[in-house]
Write a structure and sequence with these properties.
Blueprint (H helix, E strand, L loop, with lengths): L3 H15 L7 H19 L7 H13 L9 E5 L7 H7 L4 E6 L2 H14 L4 E5 L9 E7 L4 H8 L3 E11 L4 H5 L5 E9 L8 E8 L4
Parallel strand pairs: 1-2, 1-4, 2-3, 4-5
Antiparallel strand pairs: 5-7, 6-7
Helix pairs in contact: 1-3, 2-3, 2-4, 2-5, 3-4
Length: 212
C-alpha cells in the first residue's frame, strides 16, 4: 500500500543506502514533488512510471544518486522532462541556481507549477531546444536525453571552462565515449547503485579538454 508514510520510509531507507543526509524538510518536499508529479501525470502523461513506489526509486533515488558529483554554483538540466534530475537535486542541495530545460510545453508548464508549489528559490524552467539556450554553467546534467556526442554537440557551449558535465546512463557507453567531440574528455565513469533498482546505472563525468 503506497501511503505517504510507506513512501517516506522507502525514501529514507534509500537515502541511507546512498549514504546521503539531506537538509531538514527535504524528504517531505521530495514527496510533495512526487505527489504533484503523480497528480499531473494522469492528465499530462509526463512519465511512463505510474506507481508511487516506483517513482521514489526510478525518479527520486535515481536522481539523487548523482548528488555527490554535482558541483559549483549553477546547474543546467537538459532534456529535464518533468524535472529529473534537476528538481530532486535542487531540493536536496538548495542555494544553487538551476535552469531546467525542455522543449515540451506540457512538461514546462508542470515544471513552473512545481517550482511555484514547492517554493524552489533560484530554480527556473525554460521551454527551448538545447542548442538555443544561452549561458555558462558550472554543472550540466542530462538523463536519458541523447547520445554523448549529440549531447555535447547541442549543449557543449553551456559548460563553463572548469565545469563538469554529468551524463546519466545505463551501462557505460563505450562507443559513445570513443566518439566524444574534440574539446571534451571523460573525467571518470562512476557505477551507480540505486537502492531498489535492479538495473545497471552509470554516470559519465566529462570536462573540457585542457588547451594544448
Amino acid at each position: 500500500m503506497n501511503t505517504r508514510h510507506a513512501l517516506h520510509h522507502q525514501l529514507e531507507q534509500g537515502l541511507a543506502g546512498l549514504g546521503l543526509t539531506l537538509p531538514p524538510g527535504a524528504v517531505e518536499r521530495l514527496l510533495d514533488y512526487q505527489a504533484l508529479l503523480e497528480r499531473w501525470n494522469g492528465t499530462y502523461n509526463l512519465t511512463a512510471v505510474r506507481d508511487p513506489a516506483e517513482m521514489v526509486t526510478r525518479h527520486l533515488l535515481d536522481s539523487l544518486a548523482i548528488l555527490p558529483y554535482v558541483e559549483g554554483a549553477s546547474l543546467a538540466d537538459l532534456g529535464t522532462g518533468p524535472g529529473l534530475p534537476g528538481i530532486p537535486l535542487a531540493i536536496a542541495a538548495p542555494g544553487r541556481e538551476v535552469l531546467l530545460v525542455d522543449s515540451n510545453g506540457k512538461k514546462v508548464r508542470f515544471l513552473r507549477e512545481a517550482i511555484r508549489a514547492l517554493g524552489l528559490a533560484g530554480v527556473r524552467a525554460l521551454q527551448s531546444r538545447v542548442e538555443e539556450v544561452q549561458g555558462r554553467f558550472d554543472c550540466v546534467t542530462a538523463r536519458a536525453f541523447a547520445s554523448l556526442p549529440d549531447m555535447l554537440a547541442w549543449g557543449g557551449h553551456l559548460l563553463a571552462p572548469a565545469g563538469r558535465w554529468l551524463a546519466m546512463k545505463g551501462r557505460p557507453p563505450a562507443e559513445e565515449i570513443a566518439a566524444l567531440p574534440s574539446g571534451f574528455v571523460v573525467e571518470a565513469v562512476h557505477p551507480l547503485q540505486v537502492p531498489g533498482l535492479d538495473a545497471e546505472r552509470s554516470l559519465v563525468a566529462i570536462r573540457r579538454a585542457a588547451p594544448c
